[in-house]
Structures are given as C-alpha cells and as structure tokens.
Amino acid sequence: MRIITGIYKGRHFDVPRTFKARPTTDFAKENIFNVLNGYIDLEDADALDLFAGTGSISLELVSRGCRHVTAVEADRAHHAFILRCLKTLGTDKCMAVRGDVFRYLKSCKRKYDFIFADPPYALPELPQIPAAVLDGGLLADGGIFVFEHGKENDFSADPRFIERRVYGSVNFSIFGI
Q1: 129: helix, coil or strand?
Q2: CATH number of the domain where residue 42 is located
Q3: What percent of the chain has pLDDT over 90?
Q4: Which of 86, 108, 130, 152 has the fewest CB atoms below 10 angstroms from its CB?
Q5: How far apart are alpha carbons 75 and 51 in whole angstroms?
Q6: Confidence (pLDDT) at 12
C-alpha cells in the first residue's frame, strides 16, 4: 500500500496477507483523487473514512493536508494496522475508531467536508449506505461524498448524485450537498 502524494508521498506499508480488506488500487485511488481536485480542496478539510480497511484512504487524506480524518473500521486487526501506520507517520491528524459503521453514522453529531466509504461489495446493506450518509446530516454544506462499490450498483437516481467514475472493476459514485 502506497501513499500517492502529499507530505508522506511514496511511503509504503506492507498489508498483512491475512487481511480480508483489499486496499483501493493505486490506479483507482490516484484517478479518483484527481477527479476530486475539481470538487473539493482537501487541505484543512475534515474527512471521514468509513469501512477504512487498511487505512489507505485515511493515510492519503492526512498526507494531502486534511485538518482531521476519522477512520471507522470494525475489524480488530485492521484497526490495529491503521494505528501502527499512523504511529509510523507520527501524525495526530487521524483518529482511528474501532466500531460498526452503521452505529457510528447514527450516533455521530459531527459534520465532515469529505466522506469516503468503501464497504465490502457483498455487504447486504450496501445499497442503503448513500442514503444513510447523506440523510444523516454528517456531510457539511458544499461537502463531497465518494462511495466505492461494485458495477452492479447504480445510485444515479439520487438527487444528490453528481457522477460515476469507473476504473477497472472499481466504481465510484460521487455525491454532493
């Protein structure tokens, strides 16, 4: 896993082979962040990374200058890996929360400028995630929500949908408020 740009550009972290989570590919990550440059300035933004997995997106957001990143991950080993990566970088700009994303969405009172969600593609509740995020009041005015999902999902009917980007087998739906 590699950080693409920013203050930690080029840093590598070896993801344990036993992990179930698959980091967003460098190709897809680089391309979606290039697209995001047209929608949001991440410097000094508050960001939320849901289903953080290996922490790849969270680390990228910290490297790109986010003021604060909250990474939510339920798996104990993945959460511990994110904490190790943050310690290695020596940053306090990210808080790794070990917990259920849906509980977090219901209890969170904070607003975020940028939200990213990359749930397991086979998650039964996957189709409900955009509404849970967008209707939950977590996204600040002018904020952007990026949802990574499989090709069989289509969220273009949502009035807050902006566009869909496809990079190989990775699909991103972008929403705004």
Answers
A1: helix
A2: 3.40.50.150
A3: 88
A4: 152
A5: 9
A6: 93
